[in-house]
Specification:
The protein has 302 residues and is α/β, with parallel strands linked by helices. 41% of the residues lie in helices and 19% in strands. It is elongated and about 70 Å long. The termini are far apart.
Length: 302
Amino acid sequence: MISVAALLSEEIDALGRSSASPRADAALLLARALDRPRDWLIAHGDAEVSEENERRFRSLCERRRSGVPVAYLTGSAWFYGREFVVNDSVLVPRPETEHLIDEALRFVCGAMRVLDVGTGSGAIACTIVAETKARVDATDASPAAIATAVENARRLKVEDRCTFYLGDLVEPVRGNRYDIVIANLPYVPTDDLPRPPEPASFEPPVALDGGADGLELYERLLPSLPSLINEGGMILLECAPPTIRKLTHIARATFPSFVVEEGKDYAGLPRYVKVVNLRGAALRAGEAASEAARSHGGRERG
């Protein structure tokens, strides 16, 4: 039998020809094969690996070399400090999407209502509920994605304030109004869809394909948002750097009295559009402050 350290060393070398992070990939896959935490591998490098577990590990590494994302092989991915169940019916959560969470957390006050359009694994919806007192509705056109999102909400114990709806864009929630609308819709132009062995090529095309110009779904979504967003609300839309200028233009045309800004990702590239009614937001902030002052005064008089 081979030791943990020797087995890791062999596969790190083999993965180095196809992966940008062979050491991390090998550790994650061996931890999965052994059903152990990654920290255990470091402390037990001399431990012997059974032939069955070795075969399981090498099979996972072979699939990784073919391009399959590590998240699909391990069945989970980390997002905003939490582990989410993922599978080949949902997009693997991206670090860039954490910027949408940052913006939302700066904006959320109390039990605001949030809409997550195209929720996928539920990473955005579950994270906002876990981090705030907000209530989140989330939609997706894929039954498998909705099932995955529901499972993540249950595992993270946020299902009491997360409601998931099966349907196209905002159709399932028409008639509702929200303080924040977040959308991370497919935004890759059809001709630019990744091909094997790129890891993204193993993700569901429906979660990537944004049509001819990458904005097909956003062009359908934007006209429906004025009737859903509350005065003083905010809209966050993730997009690709090459097409974000057009999305910004559409947003400004749809919300001429709102402030529309572009936000950058970790690489300094424009990655999302923020649409906010500053006047309405200021009025709401004033009302909240007045309510807090009245409540405080009432307690003092009591």
